Every structure is written in C-alpha cells, then in structure tokens.
C-alpha cells in the first residue's frame, strides 16, 4: 500500500480553519487586538516597568467583552465558558505574564466567586471583577502545602457571627499568590472552616487585603513581595499571612457549605472529602487554560525556530553551496516531531475545551470526574511538551536562540513553571491513573498515596483485571509483514490502546499486593502509575487528532494533516520503543522500520514546515526576532 502523497503546496489558511475550530471568530478577534502596538514583548524591561505594562494591557483587555465571556449573563457576562478558555489560550502567543495575570483575575479569582459563591456574592462582586474595578487574588497554595490542598493549615473559625482568618505558623503562609504583591485588593482565601469546635474541611472565603485608596495592607494582613523570578516577572506574586483577621459570615463562598447565624454548618454534600473534591472540580478552567497557553507558547517557539532554520546556512555541499540547516535530517528530527506533537495536543485541547463548555452541572458524577481527569492529564503532557520543545527550539537556533532579543529565552523562562502550577504534573498523572483504576467511582476522594493504595488493595484490582483481560490479541498488532501498517490509523490506535490496557493491568497486579503494606507497595509502583496516566492521555491525544482530520474539508490540507498525524503517532512509538520491544508488541526489525518511517515522514514534511507554522496565524509582531531579518 502506497502512502498518499501530500500536494506540493497547501494553503496555510485551510489549515488555520481546522485549527481555529469551534471558536474561530473569537480567535480572529484576539489576534486582531494582540496585533496592536501596546501588546508588546517585555524585552529589557525591569520588574516594576514590566508589571506596570502588564496592568495596562490587562485594562485594555477589560475594554472588550472577552474577559466576561465565562461569567453569568445575568451579571453582564457572556455565558461562553469555551470562549473564555480559548481567549486565555490565545494570550499565550504574547507576553505570558499577561496571560497569567488575566487568568488570576478572571479565571481563578473571578471564577472562584462565580463557581463557589452564590447570588449574594455574584450581585456584589462579579461586575466589578469583570471591569477591573476589583482586582483580586487566589490564595490557595501555602508554603508547606501545594498539591496537598486538603491539608492546608490556614483556619477560618466561626466566632460571634463572623469568621476569624488566621495563619497559625510560617508553614501556613500563602505563597506565590498572583496579584498579591502590588495590585490585588481582595483574596479568595482557602482555609479550614472551624465551627462549634469542629473542622469541616477546606472552604473559600473573600478576605479584603488592601485599602482601596492607599493600597496599604489592611490591619492583620501581612503582604510580602516574592521579588524577581526566573520568568513571568510581569506578575506581582506575593506572600500573604493573616493575624486573626475578622470577616463577616457572608464572606464564606457558600455554594457547597454554609454556616448559619448560630454557627450551625450545612452542606448539600455530606462527606467532607467528597465536598472538597467537588469544590475543586469546579475550578478546572484554570488548568485547561494553562494547557492551552503552553500550547500557544510552544507554537510560537517552533515558528521562530523553523523560520530561522530556513534562513540559516551551515557547511557546503560538493558544489560549494551552503546548506540550509532545515534540510539536514538531524535538524528536521529536532523540530518536526515536536511540531507534529504540538498539532496533536492542539486538537486534544480543542476537544477538551468543547467538553468543558458542553458539560452541564447536572451531568453524572462519572462524566464530571472523567473531564477532570482529562484536564489533569492534558495539562501535564502539554506543559512538559512545552518545556522540551522550547528548549529544542532554542538549541535549533544556536547562539541566536540564546539572545533575549530573539524571544526564545523569555519563552523558556516563562513556561518553566507551567509544569508545577495549577497542579504539579507528577501529581496530576497520578490523579489520571487513579481515575483509570477506579472507573471514576464515588470513592475518588482522597488523593493521598496511603488512601489510594488502600483503596486499590481493597476494592479495585479484581475489577480492573477483569476489564483488561478482554484485550484484543497482540497478534492483531503485528499482522502485517511490512511497514504498510505503520500508516494505517486503525493500527496506530490499536497499538496505543493495547499499550494502555497492558500498563493499567500491570499496575493493578502490582497493587494487588498492597494489603500488607499499602504505602510501601504504592510508592514502589509509582513509576508504573505515572506511566499508566501518560499512555492513557497519549491515546486520547491520537484519537483527537484523528477526529480533527475527519472534520477537515479541504483535501490538500487533509492529506497534509494525515502525514503530520502519522509523524506524531510513529515518533511517540519510537520514543517508547523499549516498552514495545520489551513487551513483544514490535519485533527488532519492525522497531528499526519505525525509525525509518519517522525519517521518511520528516523528509516528506520538510517542504511544508513553514506552511505548518504559518497556519498557527501568530501575530507577526510576536515573531519579529532580529535573527529572522534577512
């Protein structure tokens, strides 16, 4: 079987139409605004000047209707959750400090008020948040508790009709809080709610932190500036601590738990743990936005590197002409598989945003948990890919890529923290794996390793083994005697599915032994657990890419996307060849053939590299690196 040839020329606009997808008009609007002169890169700006520039840009965004897209129309919002997340994603083409500050203000702070609060909070605060009349913070992370939010130490104790918010020790200080060091006037503070001498778990409270006029910290509130960071210096991250700060009873964001005037606690969700995870589940928009923004930054880096690769020449051929570096297979190998994976993750992100937009609050718990799991896994893979791909792009540009003026160092620095904020990636993949092993049952509550291990040992393992024993026979994956199967989408998908089933089954078998030593067995299998999460998400990403190709109406663009998808699938297989060989899924000769197929695809896609990055339609001012001036 011959692989269909890609036409010699493909219109990048046809690819852009597929990439822009459901919110194409919104994407065009964000691109148009970001092309304005005030949305510029912060090269050579000091910290204070950078912060001031980002705040000015934030105000310019507030002059449009996009910051309100995710809010309730009853309070001036657009009721368009998917559009809201997409607009944050598009900001990732420019200064990532602006994306983060916008995400803190409208995604985290405003999102918490809307999704955790009730009508009394919405009526009082939402319009002011959308219009930037009230700048706020999202104070969750503590010095001693980042991923383990359930065991935060800040307290909010009900006393005499109100709450006293208190930081008991230095470990409980709120850390890395965006908008806190300079601009924020109020914080959503996550604290252990205590009433009647009983702790009811983590809840969110609205706590004023600064005087509106002077900007000085309010009594009992201590604010420290985190100072210069490795990147994102346009965001004023700070530390917050509270010395018996009193707030009214109405400060509690009470959608999932409330305290009456007499101190009686009530909640529609009886279990403290289940209530906590339901509360956190409403806040996944931030996680989804980070994944999308990481994708935008990756696209920008690859666009810079591929444009440079078509200009830079090194070493002469026998005829004396110097060779364009992108014509070297080694250079193609650096950039084109990364570009293929970027396309794949884009389509997986688009699918996730649509699911987030369409899901109803009354959807079954299983559906909601699956969405949370998908968001966690995609955020992990997208941000790890950003870190790796931007570094590769920097190296592909040599010394030029190391100069700040050529933008790649800033992208590298700004995205580095993406792997650990909005959820540490390692913890997020464990969350994905737990979802696989528990089939998203109600017991999906406590994320601690000990509780997870005990649950596996007691309830899950036999069910998982029964489910995965129905795998298709392995010989189906190796039925072809040549490399034709490599370019069949059904073969690629079966291979990814089989790997996922086998890895999940292997984890279950190992955790079956956890009854005697739950923590020890879980800890020793943690690498296996993480692999289960990763291969599951990789399978979802391939499926999303295949679905996007089916939606492509332009035959030339579709043919090109087919080859890009092949490169994503085969380069992913090549990266994991040790597993496929070790588990008998590929023979040694077919493993070598995978590498040959990746080489072939790189060569075939080389003439289309510029088209593929031009299709991202990144505003030209964000690609105006001096190294690209011919």
Features:
AcylCoA_DH/oxidase_NM_dom_sf; fatty acid binding; 20 helices; 3-stranded antiparallel β-sheet; Butyryl-CoA Dehydrogenase, subunit A, domain 3; 3 domains; about 625 residues; Acyl-CoA_Oxase/DH_mid-dom; 6-stranded mixed β-sheet; Butyryl-Coa Dehydrogenase, subunit A, domain 1; globular; FAD
* Structural class label: alpha+beta
**What is the overall number of helices?**
20
Q: Judging from the principal axes of the Cα atoms, what is the shape?
A: globular
Total DSSP E strands = 13
Low-confidence runs (pLDDT<50, min 5 residues)? Answer: 439-447, 465-477
Radius of gyration: 25 Å
Share in helix: 40-55%
**In CATH's first tier, which class of the largest domain applies?**
Mainly Alpha
What's the story with the biggest beta sheet? 6 strands, mixed
Q: Gap between N and C termini, in Å?
A: 43 Å
Q: Please indicate the percent range of residues in DSSP E strands (runs of 2 or more).
A: 5-15%
CATH architecture of the largest domain: Up-down Bundle
Please tell me the total number of domains: 3
Oligomer: single chain
The gist of it:
The protein has helices spanning 12-20, 24-34, 47-62, 81-91, 96-116, 119-131, 272-281, 285-309, 329-358, 365-396, 408-416, 425-438, 449-468, 489-511, 518-524, 526-550, 555-575, 577-582, 588-605, 609-614, and strands at 136-139, 155-159, 162-166, 174-177, 186-195, 198-208, 221-225, 238-242, 245-248, 258-259, 265-266, 313-316, 322-324. The chain is an alpha+beta fold and 630 residues long. The protein starts with 11 loop residues before the first helix and ends in a 16-residue tail after the last helix.
């Amino acid at each position: 079987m011959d692989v269909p040839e890609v036409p010699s020329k493909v219109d990048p606009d046809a690819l852009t139409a597929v990439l822009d997808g459901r919110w194409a008009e919104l994407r065009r609007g964000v691109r148009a605004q970001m092309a304005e002169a005030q949305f510029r890169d912060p090269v050579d700006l000091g910290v204070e000047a950078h912060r001031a520039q980002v705040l000015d840009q934030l105000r310019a965004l507030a002059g449009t209707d996009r910051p309100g897209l995710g809010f309730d129309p009853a309070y001036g919002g657009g009721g368009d959750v998917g559009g809201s997340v997409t607009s944050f994603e598009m900001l990732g083409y420019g200064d990532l400090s602006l994306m983060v500050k916008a995400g803190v203000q409208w995604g985290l702070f405003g999102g918490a008020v809307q999704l955790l609060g009730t009508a009394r909070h919405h009526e009082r605060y939402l319009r002011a948040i959308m219009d930037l009349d009230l700048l706020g913070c999202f104070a969750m992370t503590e010095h001693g508790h980042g991923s383990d939010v359930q065991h935060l130490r800040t307290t909010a104790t009900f006393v005499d009709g109100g709450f006293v918010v208190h930081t008991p020790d230095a470990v409980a200080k709120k850390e890395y809080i965006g908008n806190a060091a300079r601009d924020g006037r109020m914080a959503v503070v996550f604290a252990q709610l205590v009433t009647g001498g009983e702790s009811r778990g983590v809840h969110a409270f609205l706590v004023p932190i600064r005087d509106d006029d002077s900007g000085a910290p309010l009594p009992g509130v201590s604010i420290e500036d985190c100072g210069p960071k490795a990147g994102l210096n346009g965001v004023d991250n700070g530390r917050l601590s509270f010395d018996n700060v009193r707030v009214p009873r109405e400060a509690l964001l009470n959608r999932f738990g409330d305290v009456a005037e007499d101190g009686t606690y009530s909640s529609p969700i009886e279990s403290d743990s289940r209530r906590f995870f339901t509360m956190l589940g409403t806040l996944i928009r931030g996680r989804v936005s980070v994944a999308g923004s990481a994708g935008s930054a990756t696209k920008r880096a690859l666009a810079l590197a591929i444009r440079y690769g078509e200009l830079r020449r090194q070493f002469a051929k026998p005829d004396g002409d110097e060779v364009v570096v992108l014509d070297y297979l080694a250079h193609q190998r650096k950039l084109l598989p990364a570009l293929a994976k970027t396309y794949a993750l884009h389509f997986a992100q688009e699918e996730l945003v649509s699911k987030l937009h369409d899901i109803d609050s009354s959807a079954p718990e299983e559906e909601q948990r699956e969405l949370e799991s998908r968001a966690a896994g995609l955020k992990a893979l997208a941000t790890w890919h950003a870190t790796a791909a931007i570094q590769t792009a920097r190296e592909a540009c040599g010394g030029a890529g190391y100069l700040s003026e050529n933008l790649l160092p800033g992208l590298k620095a700004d995205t580095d923290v993406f792997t650990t904020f909005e959820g540490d990636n390692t913890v997020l993949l464990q969350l994905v794996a737990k979802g696989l092993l528990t089939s998203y049952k109600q017991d999906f509550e406590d994320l601690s390793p000990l509780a997870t291990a005990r649950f596996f040992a007691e309830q899950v393992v036999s069910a998982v083994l029964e489910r995965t024993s129905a795998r298709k026979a392995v010989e189906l994956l190796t039925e072809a005697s040549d490399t034709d199967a490599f370019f069949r989408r059904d073969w690629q998908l079966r291979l990814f599915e089989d790997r996922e089933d086998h890895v999940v089954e292997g984890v279950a078998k190992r955790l079956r032994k956890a009854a005697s030593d739950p923590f020890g067995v879980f800890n020793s299998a943690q690498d296996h657990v993480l692999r289960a999460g990763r291969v599951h998400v990789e399978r979802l990403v391939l499926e999303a890419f295949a679905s996007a190709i089916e939606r492509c109406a332009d035959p030339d663009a579709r043919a090109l996307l087919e080859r890009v998808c092949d490169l994503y699938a085969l380069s992913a297989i090549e990266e994991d060849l040790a597993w496929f060989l070790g588990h008998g899924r590929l023979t040694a000769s077919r493993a070598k053939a995978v590498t040959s197929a990746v080489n072939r695809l790189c060569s075939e896609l080389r003439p289309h590299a510029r088209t593929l990055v031009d299709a991202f339609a990144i505003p030209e001012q964000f690609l105006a690196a001096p190294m690209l001036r011919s």
